[in-house]
Design a protein that fits this description.
By secondary structure, the chain is mainly beta. Helix content is about 10%, strand content about 50%. The chain has a single domain, classed as Jelly Rolls, CATH 2.60.120. It contains one helix and twelve strands, in the order βαβββββββββββ. A hairpin with a 2-residue loop joins β7 and β8.
């Protein structure tokens, strides 16, 4: 798991062969935010989802096996609970590339605000979209990068 500001993207671009494409998309999208929806960057290898929603009180931890998540908050502030997925009990089995786990009391809180991103690998369970200090609307881009 990584958390940082988008201005530091170059520190992470070489961590995966497809990360540069993902971070270049994010940098351009912050300058001119696309409408909500899916955007293919490199077919199913790298794609982005632009979304807006209201933060919520609770959620279930999730993880992915086929994709790495790069989650960037463009506007607003949210909390994401993070933990290793090792030992977590499955609540809802895989549908496509997401598995949900039962609530986990052994997690750390991450706060993502404007232009802050987090990278979640397959070993990382994460509960995004939570209230940080007060309920608010968040605009976020999630880039899905295929695990090679």
């Amino acid at each position: 798991m990584v958390i940082d500001k988008l201005k530091n993207k170059n520190l992470y671009a070489d961590m995966h062969p497809l990360f540069k494409k993902a971070f270049d998309f994010l940098e351009n999208a912050v300058e001119k935010l696309p409408e909500e929806g899916r955007y293919d960057i490199d077919g199913d290898n790298v794609y982005a989802m632009v979304q807006s929603y209201e933060t919520k009180e609770k959620g279930l931890p999730e993880a992915h096996d086929k994709y790495i998540d790069i989650q960037l908050v463009v506007k607003g502030c949210e909390k994401i609970e993070y933990s290793s997925r090792d030992g977590l009990e499955i609540e809802k089995d895989y549908v496509e590339d997401v598995v949900f786990f039962k609530e986990n009391s052994n997690s750390s809180s991450l706060i993502l605000d404007d232009n802050t991103f987090a990278v979640f690998y397959p070993c990382d369970a994460h509960t995004p979209g939570l209230i940080a200090d007060k309920k608010q609307n968040v605009t976020k881009i999630v880039v899905k990068v295929k695990v090679l």
